[in-house]
Design goal:
Length: 247
């Protein structure tokens, strides 16, 4: 794993993968700027719902959206909700752009014709860097829902401080969630699940909503499979789905 310093935060995952196809470079150059969250000024604080060209009913944040399958599909299903997605891995960001535009499926590399899929509201904003850069710029209670799906597990004990759900980020996630809002975490790594459960249940701002085993063994009704989840299921693993309510 690459170990890079970027912005204020130390990020231990991958920023780039295999070389991008030309069509994806076109997407990055021509389409990403239309939906990209520009870096904020040092002390700037911005209302999350003011980042969209319409007034969204709610704003949901997806942290580490990977290939963007979940984000793109949720955004398609919920055109009245504003979605902010953050992902450090450039190849994942381009994959989201493919899902949002359908561009590669149309075999289309002309930057002038790149547009959102038909019928898709302009309800997605992308931060193509470390989500922790964004946190100080949003007021308390900015989000109705935060997704952290199949986060990098960092299974070794000596790497546990790198786990996204942990003592450093949990109070920030609690601050950013509206009262009654939801934090949704899923993982197929039981060390991570135990760790997340321990730290989230210790936090007085969150309540675990599960009442019976199927509430964490099965995904919620409105679930969209992510790429990592599909890989885990294909290997016969049994992911766990946690929903915590912000008190
Ligand atoms: C194991 S992948 C899972 C991707 C996707 N959620 C899925 O389920 O298919 C975790 C992703 O989180 C991203 N990530 C980790 N820390 C992040 C951070 N601080 N800000 C933004 N993205 C992050 C990584 O780049 C990686 O793509």
């Amino acid at each position: 794993m690459e170990n890079t310093e970027h912005g204020e935060h130390r990020f231990f995952g991958r920023r780039k993968g295999k070389k991008l196809k030309e069509s994806r470079v076109v997407l990055l150059d021509s389409f990403l700027p239309k939906i990209r969250l520009k870096p904020f000024e040092k002390d700037e604080v911005r209302a999350a719902d003011a980042l969209f060209p319409f007034k969204p009913e709610q704003v949901w944040l997806e942290i580490g959206f990977g290939g963007g399958e979940h984000l793109a599909e949720q955004a398609r299903r919920h055109p009245d909700i504003g979605f902010i997605g953050a992902e450090v891995f450039l190849n994942g960001v381009t994959s989201l752009l493919v899902h949002l535009t359908g561009m590669e499926r149309r075999g289309d590399v002309d930057p002038d014709t790149v547009r959102l899929q038909d019928g898709r509201a302009d309800n997605v904003r992308v931060y193509d860097d470390d989500v922790r850069d964004l946190f100080p710029h949003f007021p308390d209670g900015s989000f109705d829902r935060i997704y952290v799906l199949f986060p990098d597990p960092w299974p070794k004990k000596r790497h546990r401080d790198r786990r996204f759900i942990g003592p450093k980020n949990i109070p920030v996630l609690a601050r950013l969630l509206k009262k009654g809002g939801e934090l949704r975490v899923a993982s197929d790594d039981m060390t991570y699940i135990r760790w997340a459960l321990q730290h989230l249940t210790e936090c007085a701002d969150f309540e675990w909503t599960a009442e019976e085993a199927d509430d964490w063994r099965k995904p919620p009704a409105d679930w969209v499979n992510t790429r990592y989840e599909q890989k885990a299921l294909a290997k016969g693993k049994k992911p766990v789905y946690l929903i915590f309510k912000r008190l």
